[in-house]
Each structure stands twice: as structure tokens, then as C-alpha cells.
Amino acid sequence: MFRSDLLRREAIQGYLFILPWFIGFLVFTAGPLTAALGFSFTDWNGVSAIEFIGLENYIQLSRDSRFWQSLKVTLVFTFFYLILNLIIGFALAIVMNQPVRGMRLFRTIYYLPAVLSGVAVAVLWSFLFHREFGSLNWLLGFFGIKRIGWIVSESWALPSIIIMELWRVGSTIIIFLAGLQGIPPELYEAAEVDGANRRWRLWSITIPLMSPTIFFVLIVGFINAMQVFTQAYIMTRGGPNYATYFYSINLYQTTFRELRLGYASAQAGVLFVIIFFVTLCILWVSRYRVNYELV
Amino acid sequence: MATATASATSKSKSGGFWSRRKRLHLQNHLVTYLILIPGALLFLYPLLWMLSTSVKPKDQIFTYPIEWIPHTWMWSNYGEVFNQVPFLTYTINTAVITVIGVVGTLVGSSLAAYGFARFRFPGKDALFLLMLSTMMVPIWVTLIPSFLMFRWFGWLNSYLPILVPAFFAQPFYTFLLRQFFMTVPQDLEDAARIDGANRLQIFLNIMLPLSRPALATVAIFAFFFYWNEFLLPLIYIQDQSKFPISVGISAFISEYRSDFALMMAASGMALAPPMIVFFLAQRYFIQGFVLSGVKG
After folding, report:
1. Which CATH topology does B79-293 take?
2. Do B122 and A1 make contact, defined as CB atoms within 8 angstroms?
3. Segment A180-189, tens digit of pLDDT
């Protein structure tokens, strides 16, 4: 198999360097993943005797309206968040690629929220969204917009969380800016000589050349958006009336409140399959749609 | 960042020739500012709101229309947070988790990244792909079995379930470091090998010192991650004395729902360290995205 002892030594050393990862993979990912699959065929509360019930959990899942609601909320959130994040991030990156004075300061300001996340941000936005005394309704009041219920309104709660997440569009802007700066300026110059207008240049140069970056943003954003938890847990607890009942909130409830570990494992398994399948689909589309050649 | 300014200057130089071009450029600048200035205010708005609320006296929080400037500056709100909850303990706990988490991430991920970047061995590409694909595994799938495993280890109510996995390489950071390691010239390592250094020595004495920018990037990402981490401590930590800030605030808001001044002061203090780190190390933060997004 090996051409010489030297190669064999190199291989052994290489395996040793990646060994910690591999052990971690087995213990913290592959093992639990397999176990979760096994649990999904059981009825268990973590303490009493474990009972094998076959596909019962999955059958029950298909009739569980709370589960379907959580899936719907998560997919709606993910869809609108991804699209808006992409459009706003792309547009701002193009604007921020202009050589104007003070751009460093602008970039710092736009990136800043991207490093802020978690509980403190959710608490901050809860008060910003406060119906009576929040400053968002106050600000909108100047434009003649009547008070919105935001996170206490059934129809606005989910858009509220989308808006809050879009505040952190900075990371997308950074990625797109890096992509834009990798496009050779000669291409634009040549297009300009050929008389291509701004919109034409955007569609025929910028977007095709940015497609790998766009797909990267889509995939990473998708995987994260499907698992959103902290925001809803802190701000709405899934309410009002299940309007922000994210998949993860449902999983948390099933696992730690109801202690139905088998049923929760089935739900988690379905989430994994969805994420895996959609990610592969995006990757597959990107194969045919992406222009890698000029990058 | 360097390429940004370079391309920026080359563009403005080439634009100065014709007057029509000049006018177009001015127009461009105007439009840019018209978008960016209001946008910047909007992006800062939530933070300004947090700051303003955190120093307001209680009677001024529930006023409408909103008064942004407090009639008395209640800096004591910040001190009050420490009286109401053990905020200092929370901060120390968060710092401990963050420091160990960052160190663990750097150690584990850089080892694996070096293995993937510089060695030839059968199955390397498949293993690397396997590692990348684990990024698709949602935390929720492994959560229950992991919880049971850590309970069996007797690790509940400790930081071990949060911190031990950090030392076993995280796919995203490993990927990022590998990308960087592959750009380091091989000659230096070859020279050291001829001098009789083994691979571990080369890794420690040559590769790591040369990779400081990439390591800084990973350290910063990991810092933000562990500083903000909520789900794992929420699940694993029961004692209030072991809470990190995130879980502490979450417990705090269920008790003091309407005390917005204190909540904003607490949030402000929780957000300050990430902001400071961001201002100090913005360059490395941006580089991380460049490495991950473009070359990926």
C-alpha cells in the first residue's frame, strides 16, 4: 500500500494529529447521533425502563399539530430571514464597496451588532419592541405609523424576530465585501468600454462572480436559522399563541419539560434530515449555477 | 482590509479624468452617504436605546413620548445590578468558560488542521469531508444522548460538558486554520526537518508562530461563541453560583420583568466585552470571514 517507510511514517503522524478530532467525532457526534436514532424508536423519560415502540413516535409526530406548527414557524422564519439577509447584505456590501471618506467608520458601525448575540441582545430588543414604552414604536410614530404590538402581537411576533436578526447582517456584509473585492476591476472596465450600464454590470459580472459566496451565505445561514432558540426562548417563549413556537422551542419543551426523550429524539432526527437534505440540495444547485471559473 | 483600501484608491485615481466622470462620482458619493448615514444611525439605535435606558431613573422609563436624556443620570443602576444578583460571580464564571473554551478550541482545532493541511495519508479527503459534514448536525440531535452521557460521567452542574468538547477540534475552526496553514510556505518546515526537528516541534515552533493572525481570528470567534453561549449552560448548570452571565440574566428577567433600567444595565455589561474585543481586533474578525467565505 505504501511506497516506502517514509510515507507510512508520515501517514501515522498525520493520523496522530487528527486523532483528537476523530475521538471527539466518535464521542460527541457520531455516538450521540446513533444513540439518538435508537432513542427515536423508544418511549423513555430518562429514568424508568426504556420501552421499544418501533415507529410509533414518527406516526405520532405526523399527527402532532404542535410539531407542525413548530416546523411551519421555523421554515417561514428561515425563508424570510435568508432572503432578506441576502438582499440587504448584498446591497449594503455594494454600497460599502464605494471608495468614500469615512468608510472605515461605517463598516465598524455596521459590523458591530454582528458580534453581539444571545440573551443580552434578546433582552435589549424586548424593550425596544415594547408596545407602550419601546423606542421603536416611538420612532415609527414620526412617520405616522400607529403602534405595533411587535412581540406581543400574534401577527408581528415572528417578523419582530426576523428584524432583530437582520440587525446582525454585518457578518454577511463582510463576506460579500470580501467577495466583491476579489472581482478583478478590469472586468468592469471592459464592460464599461463596451457600454454596459450599471444594472447590466451587476447582472452579468457581479452576481455570477459572487455566486459561490452567495451559496456559502445561504448554506451557513440556513443551518443556523433552522436552530434558532435563544431569541424566542427569552423574548416570547414561543408565544403569543404559538406564533414564534420554533422547532427548537418545541424540542426543548418535549425534552426538558415533558421528559419525553424518545419523542424528542424523533423530532431531532427529522430536523437533521431536513437540514441535511436541504443543504445537499443547495450544494447540488450550486454545482450547476455557480461560476467558479473566473474566481 | 488591505485589498479594500488598495482597490479603493485605484478606483478614485482612475475616476478623476473627465468632468462627466467626476460628476458621476460626486453623485455616487452623495447616494452612498444618503444610504449609509441613516443606516448607521439605525444600526446604532438599539445600543443607544440600551445606554439611555440603563441610566434613567425608574420614573422616566415609563414615559411617553420618550425622553432620551435622563433628568438625573442614574449610573447607580449599574451598581444596583450587583446588589440584586451575583453579577460579579456570573462575570467570573463567564470569563472562566470563555478562556478555557478559547484555549481548548485553539489546541484541538489547530492540531487537526495541521494534520489535514500538511500530511498525506489514506482517506484524508474523505475524513476531511466527514468533518465538514458534521457542521450540518444540529446541536439538538446530539443533545439528549450527550446529556445522558455527561450525567453518567457525573459531569452535570459543571462546566465539563461545555468545555471538554472544545479540546477535540471544532469543524469550522479546523477548516479555517487548515485554509491558512496551506498558504504557509513549505520550505521553512523542510529546512527544520533537515535539521532534525520532528513534526510536533515543527508544528509548535514554526507553524503556530507563523499563524498568529489565523489563530487570533479563531480565538476571537471562539471568544464570542463562549461568551454568549446560552443553551448548554442553561441545560447543564443548576447552581446559581455557577451561572454564566447569559443564564444569570435569563433568570434575572423572569424575576424583574419590568425593571428595564436594571435589565438594560445588565445587558450593557454583558455586551461590553464583545464590543471591546471587536474594536481591538476588528481586523482579525474580518479576516475570519474572508478566509471562510471566499476561499471556501
Report:
1. MetI-like fold (1.10.3720)
2. yes
3. 888 888 888 8
